[in-house]
């Protein structure tokens, strides 16, 4: 079989670029082991987890604002998650049918050499020749081995399509201190679950802005046990005994569910191991080029920004550069990609949030109208402007609708907007977005 481009992976790093190439007349083969488009984000990641998050937030708001208790039916929450996934599976099927230049194949791809790919389809090998290869194979949870690790789940198990986790636990232990651990702990605590976080080190959310993390943790009030490595998990009847270290001694607690949130790793197709860096990701430049001229990599597999929306941007950049005969004409600015921690409240940041010499302005969420409506007035917005030019360098926010507001801030960072330009724009009222112009006015 001969194709112009083989795309390995049908998630955010794969199908946007495949569709764009097909639109320009390229003959594209897209290969994915799941047999559906959307990747981990749709099958077990951001879409299902945020569906659960939104329902949990709604339940919390009814109690927080109206003082009314809502009986939580977690089976129905999971069914709604499945329904959303099914809607999007069908949506992607329609999109695939609309792009006649894309052939989709359910299988596992390996790279024999830069212009030859072998696809395993139910045990049968199909040889494919291609001018270009786009690797977008994504990532998967890291699940360390230790006594009792077989009793533990990951976030993929919790949120996957038709998840086996249908009953809400009374108590759960989450191992890890990254964004998945914090998100799940926050969401499930709002559903009435007693959550405990075991963190090996002395801090959580490494790599996130320190002041943002400090502000967020003061709002979340989670049970976080620092310097508490996990040693063993034992099954005791219908419960689990979790044995961990704390203060130099071993401790234990009983729980209904143990979830490992111990990081994710790139899924590296066989034959491409030589393209990886010391961290195990496929190394690329800002144009998504690997060390091989006709091989590109986009999305989680390159480790530049492990978020679906970043993967989409990278996928399109790779497509444009392939259309330019492999020469770079499109570059991805990773620093202008917004990042959101979907806890309750959420926390978001974009751009340079640690400038050494900048004008810093603050807006407290207790003065924001939507926060007042929801009775969720914890949090703050911080913006950082360059001295002299007043160009926006970056910003972070904790509080209501941060996941939406950060997009406006990201646009301003990406396009070099100034405090005056932000201050002069009339954001809709009432909306959280208007605090951007309120904050910008403090500079003028």
From TrEMBL:
Q: What is this protein called?
A: Dihydrolipoamide dehydrogenase
Q: Kindly state which keywords UniProt assigns to this record, in alphabetical order.
A: Disulfide bond, FAD, Flavoprotein, NAD, Oxidoreductase, Redox-active center
Span of domain FAD/NAD(P)-binding: 3-313
Pyridine nucleotide-disulphide oxidoreductase dimerisation domain location is 363-438
Q: Which GO terms describe its molecular function?
A: dihydrolipoyl dehydrogenase (NADH) activity; flavin adenine dinucleotide binding
- One annotated GO biological process: 2-oxoglutarate metabolic process
- InterPro entries, per database record: Class-I_Pyr_Nuc-Dis_Oxidored, FAD/NAD-bd_sf, FAD/NAD-binding_dom, FAD/NAD-linked_Rdtase_dimer_sf, Pyr_nuc-diS_OxRdtase, Pyr_nucl-diS_OxRdtase_dimer, Pyr_OxRdtase_I_AS
Which superkingdom? Answer: Archaea
NCBIfam families associated with the record: PRK06292.2-1 (NF004943)
Pfam families on file: Pyr_redox_2, Pyr_redox_dim
Cofactor(s) needed: FAD
Q: Which family does it belong to?
A: Belongs to the class-I pyridine nucleotide-disulfide oxidoreductase family.
Does the UniProt entry include the keyword Oxidoreductase?
A: yes
């Amino acid at each position: 079989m001969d194709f112009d481009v083989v795309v390995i992976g049908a998630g955010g790093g794969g199908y946007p670029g495949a569709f764009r190439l097909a639109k320009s007349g390229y003959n594209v083969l897209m290969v994915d082991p799941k047999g559906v488009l959307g990747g981990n984000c749709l099958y077990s990641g951001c879409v299902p987890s945020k569906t659960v998050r939104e329902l949990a937030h709604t339940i919390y708001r009814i109690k927080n604002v109206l003082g009314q208790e809502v009986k939580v039916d977690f089976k129905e929450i999971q069914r709604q998650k499945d329904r959303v996934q099914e809607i999007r599976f069908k949506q992607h099927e329609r999109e695939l049918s609309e792009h006649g230049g894309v052939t989709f194949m359910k299988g596992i791809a390996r790279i024999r050499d830069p212009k030859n790919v072998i696809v395993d389809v139910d045990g049968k090998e199909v040889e494919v020749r291609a001018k270009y290869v786009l690797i977008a194979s994504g990532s998967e949870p890291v699940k360390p081995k230790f006594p009792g690790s077989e009793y533990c789940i990951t976030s993929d198990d919790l949120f996957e399509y038709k998840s086996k986790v249908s009953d809400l636990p009374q108590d759960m232990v989450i191992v890890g201190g990254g964004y998945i651990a914090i998100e799940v702990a926050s969401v499930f605590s709002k559903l009435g679950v007693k959550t405990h976080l075991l963190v090996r080190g002395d801090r959580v959310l490494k790599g996130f802005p320190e002041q943002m993390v400090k502000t967020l943790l003061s709002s979340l009030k989670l049970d976080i046990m620092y310097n508490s490595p996990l040693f063993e998990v034992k099954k005791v009847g219908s419960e689990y005994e979790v044995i961990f270290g704390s203060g130099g001694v071993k401790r234990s607690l009983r729980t209904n569910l143990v979830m490992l949130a111990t990081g994710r790793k790139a899924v590296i197709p066989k034959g491409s191991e030589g393209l990886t860096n010391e961290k195990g990701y496929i190394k690329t430049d800002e144009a998504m080029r690997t060390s091989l001229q006709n091989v590109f990599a986009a999305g989680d597999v390159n480790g530049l920004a492990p978020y679906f929306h970043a993967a989409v941007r990278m996928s399109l950049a790779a497509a444009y550069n392939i259309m330019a005969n492999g020469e770079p004409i499109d570059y991805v600015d990773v620093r202008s990609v917004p990042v959101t921690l979907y806890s309750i409240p959420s926390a978001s940041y974009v751009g340079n949030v640690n400038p050494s010499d900048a004008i810093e302005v603050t807006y407290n969420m207790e003065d924001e109208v939507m926060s007042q409506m929801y009775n969720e007035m914890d949090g703050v917005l911080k913006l950082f402007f360059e001295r002299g030019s007043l160009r926006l360098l970056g910003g972070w926010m904790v509080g209501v609708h941060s996941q939406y507001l950060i997009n406006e801030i990201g646009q301003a960072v990406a396009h070099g907007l100034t405090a005056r330009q932000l201050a002069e724009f009339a954001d809709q009222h009432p909306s959280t977005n208007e605090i951007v112009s309120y904050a910008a006015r403090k500079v003028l």
